Amino acid sequence: MKLLNKIFKKLKISKKNRRPDSSSSSSMLRQNFGLIMSILGPFKIQREGLLETKMMTIFLARWA
Q: What superkingdom does the record give (predicted)?
C-alpha cells in the first residue's frame, strides 16, 4: 500500500476523499490516469511492486 500512499500524496488527495462515492477524487483520478500509469511503470519491474500494481489496477477499475 506504500505505492498507493505515494500516488495519493502526489495527487494531493486527502484520506477522506479516497472513497469511490467522492466525485471530486474520482474525477481527479480520471484526469491523472496517465500520471498514475507513469508512476506505476517502474513498479511492474520491481518484485515488491507486482502485488501493488495488481491491487492498483483493481482499485482503478472500481473508479472507472
A: Eukaryota
C-alpha cell of residue 12? 494531493
- pTM for this predicted structure: 0.24
* CA end-to-end span of the chain: 20
**Longest pairwise C-alpha distance within the chain:** 33
At residue 12, the 3 state secondary structure works out as coil
Element (H, E) at 5: helix 2-11
Series of mean pLDDT values for 10-residue runs along the chain (64 residues): 70 54 59 70 56 70 64
| Integer Cα distance of 13 and 24 in angstroms | 9
